[in-house]
């Protein structure tokens, strides 16, 4: 792992035996083992946390990119009709023959109300102004 061979470990063990003595060597080895275990667990937990954060950052980045893409698509959808040239408005067939739609000047409706064109329910095209309502003539 660190490039330490068995002979080097044996040499470190002999030096520790000489320095610590045979009475304290087992306790020192146990303590060293506990510290090494704690360091490994700490290192692994930090490593997993960093990997999780990197994964979370990737997910956040993907979500952010998807959000930006959806905003771009919405902007294109909104701006696309504006970018296309305006098409001329189509006039309905009834508006092309105003004589057939308007009542005769002398005829008054039986209900006594003012006469209205037959296509009053249809909106007027933007090219022609709306006609004023006609009032019946009294003889």
**What separation lies between the terminal Cα atoms?**
116 Å
Number of helices: 3
Q: Give the biggest beta sheet.
A: none
Mean pLDDT: 74
Pattern of helices and strands: HHH
- Which residues sit in consecutive blocks of at least 5 with pLDDT less than 50? 98-102, 111-120
Count of DSSP E strands? Answer: 0
Q: Structural class of the helices, strands and pairings?
A: mainly alpha
The helical percent reads 55-70%
Radius of gyration: 46 Å
Q: How would you describe this structure in keywords?
A:
single chain; mainly alpha; 3 helices
Structure, described:
The chain has 139 residues and is mainly alpha-helical. 62% of the residues lie in helices and 0% in strands. It is built from three helices and no strands. It has helices spanning 6-83, 93-96, 98-101. The longest helix is centred in the N-terminal third of the chain and has 78 residues, at 6-83. It is rod-shaped and about 135 Å long. It starts with 5 loop residues before the first helix and ends in a 38-residue tail after the last helix. Mean pLDDT is 74; it is low at 98-102 and 111-120.
